[in-house]
Amino acid sequence: MRLVSSSPAQYGILLLGCLLVLLPNTAECGRAENVDEYALTIPFPIPFPVSNPNTIVNGDNANVGEFPWYCVFAGGVLCGATLVHEDIVVTAAHCIDGSVPPRLRCGATTTSNGVLVDVEASVTHPQYKDRELANDIAILKLANPLSIQVADFNTDEAVPAGGSEVTAMGFGRTEPDTGGGSQSLQKLQMEALSDAECAATFPDYEPSRNICVDENNAGICFGDSGSPLVNDAGLVLGVASFVIQSCDSRFPDFFTRISTYSNWLQRSICSESDNPPDADCENVGDDDGDGGGGGGDGGIIDIITGCITFWIDLCGGLLDF
């Protein structure tokens, strides 16, 4: 599997480390079997302004008031978020990897309605890893509290069950290969797949990190990142993270699994909010996340692992041209 490419600067640093570790041995670029079959693609934040008035890919217009806790980045890049406390929203870490939006538009069903609110601060999960999109979750602290309905988030690891109906949403691109974002909030009913089904279509699937969902010829697309996945009760189950190969492809779409990070999310609300929910802050559990994105000093093993990933990624990229 070829992962999302790093920046040139990251490649330069890693290349130097690889040369120091691997020399005097030489590495020959060769395509590993099926290395590009599962090319991973972030549904990346697309620039404003939005320009596509069509109807997420093959979705429908959301009704006014249907998702009052839905927020969209207002300016800079296009991503979604969910109001989970009066002054806290949850989004994807890759949406704010490099820049934080100046403000959000919450309760919006079009690009011109809803409530505008400034963003004061951000907190990314400490084990977020951009290459693997591990622990792809973050919060934004709003400058002022909002008096609109907040969303509840899931804490049950057994939810959603395979085969259950879920809803994705967003202002992202409505055509797989062209256009900007939608001018209206789109929604799409999808089916949650079982862990076995997810692993069968994507061998690197990590059930502790992700939920995978599917719908024929439809799905999340560029600009839908950070938007929620909910069940019929409006419970937030996931955060839009990545697709494989392209939008509406034969592969499922992947969301960060909220239940895995529910303790981290609750602790973040308790530590960052100007008005934390005291009753929910007394007995918050230990840190969570699967550690797949852990940083820190991993020593020689981490360097060698990084080198292997680097050469696979570099060689695969060269052979793609």
Descriptive account of the structure:
By secondary structure, the chain is α+β, with helices and mostly antiparallel strands. It has three domains: 8-40 and 299-320, no CATH class; 64-151 and 259-281, Thrombin, subunit H; 154-257, Thrombin, subunit H (Beta Barrel), CATH 2.40.10.10. The chain has helices spanning 8-22, 195-201, 262-272, 278-281, 299-320, and strands spanning 40-41, 46-47, 60-61, 70-73, 77-78, 80-85, 88-91, 103-106, 115-124, 138-142, 165-170, 186-192, 210-214, 228-230, 236-244, 253-257. β6 and β7 (88-91) form a beta hairpin. α1 packs across α5 (299-320). It is globular, with a radius of gyration of 20 Å. The two termini are 17 Å apart. Keywords: Disulfide bond, Hydrolase, Protease, Serine protease, Signal, Virulence. One of its GO terms (biological process) is proteolysis. This is Chymotrypsin-like elastase family member 1.
Strand order of the largest sheet: 11-12-13-16-15-14
The CATH homologous superfamily of the largest domain corresponds to Trypsin-like serine proteases
Q: What is the H/E string?
A: HEEEEEEEEEEEEHEEEEHHH
Radius of gyration: 20 Å
CATH class of the largest domain: Mainly Beta
Quote the CATH topology of the largest domain: Thrombin, subunit H
Counted up, domains total: 3
Mean pLDDT: 75
Q: Give the overall shape, derived from the CA principal axes.
A: globular
| Broad structural category | alpha+beta
Percent of sequence in beta strands: 15-25%
- Biggest β-sheet, characterized? 6 strands, antiparallel, barrel
Low-confidence stretches: 1-40, 44-56, 292-321
CATH architecture of the largest domain: Beta Barrel
Tell me the quaternary state.
single chain
The portion of residues assigned to helices is 10-25%
